[in-house]
Amino acid sequence: MKSQKIKLVYFSPTGTTQKVLEGIAKGINVEVSNVIDITKPALRDSEMPSFGDGLVLIGAPVYAGRLPSVAAECFRKMKANKTPAALLVLYGNREYEDALLELKDIAVMSGFKPVACGAFIGEHSFSSDEFPLAQSRPDIADMEKAEAFGKEIAAKLNEIESVDSMSDVHVSGNKPYREEMKLSAIDFIEVTDECDNCGICAEVCPNGAINEDDAHSTDTEKCIYCCACIKFCPVGARVLKDGKIKDIAKHLSQSCKQRKEPETFLG
Ligand SMILES: Cc1cc2nc3c(=O)[nH]c(=O)nc-3n(C[C@H](O)[C@H](O)[C@H](O)COP(=O)(O)O)c2cc1C
User: What is the pTM of this model?
Assistant: First the structure.
C-alpha cells in the first residue's frame, strides 16, 4: 500500500520537531501535500481536517515527560479512518517518558493506525551557551537517522496489503501517564536593551503571550515556557533570568550530558 502523498501535522515552537519530521518525510520520498502547523494559535482554534488514506506524520515535543497540553488538545480534534500514521516526539536529551505512548494513544483514539513511532533528540528549549543541553541537535547524524527511518517506513508500507494486516507498534511509556506539567505564571525571561521591538518574538510565540507592539510585555499566564521567543530573537535580547527555570537549565545541563540516540519502533 504505497502512499502517494503524505501530510505533516506538528507542534514545534523551537523548530526541532518540524526539522526531524521533514527529514523523515524526505526519506519516505513522496510528495508532501499538506502541512498543518498547529504551533500557530489560529490553526489550533480552527477545525482540523478529516484524514483519508494517505500517510500522516504527526509530531510534538516532550514537556515534562508528556505532550504539551496545547498540542494534545488539538491532536484530540483530529478525525481519521484507519489512516496510517507515523508518530514522533522530540526531547531535549533528558527523557521522553510517557509522551510517545500518549501520542500513540491519541492517534489511535482519533482513528489513525500507527505504522511507526520514534523519539528523537532536539536542542533543549532551556539550553544556552552558559548551560548547553543537546545543543544544535538534531545534528547531521540525527538527520541521517530521520531519513533512514523514513525509508524504513516507506518499505514497511510497500510490503503490506492494507493497514488491517499491520501489527501493533509497541512503544516505551507507562500508564497511568506521569502527571501533566502544571503551568504557573513564572516571569523568567529578561528582555535586555538589545531589544529593538522588531516583533519576531510575538510572531513566534505559540500562545499569543507577547504583546506585538511591546516585546517587554509578556503575559506570564499565557506563557508555556517553550522559549521560542528566546531562540528566534535575532539580536539575542531575550535571556533566562536568575530563578527557577535557569536553575533547571543549569541542573539539566550538568546531569544530562551523556548523548542519547534516537529510538524508532515499527509495526
Ligand atoms: C516546558 C518544557 C518541558 C520540557 N520537558 C522535557 C522533558 O521532560 N524531557 C526532555 O528531554 N526535554 C524536555 N524539554 C525539551 C524539549 O522537549 C526539546 O527541546 C524539544 O526538542 C523541543 O521541540 P521543538 O523544537 O519542536 O519546540 C522540555 C521543554 C520545555 C519548554
Answer: 0.97
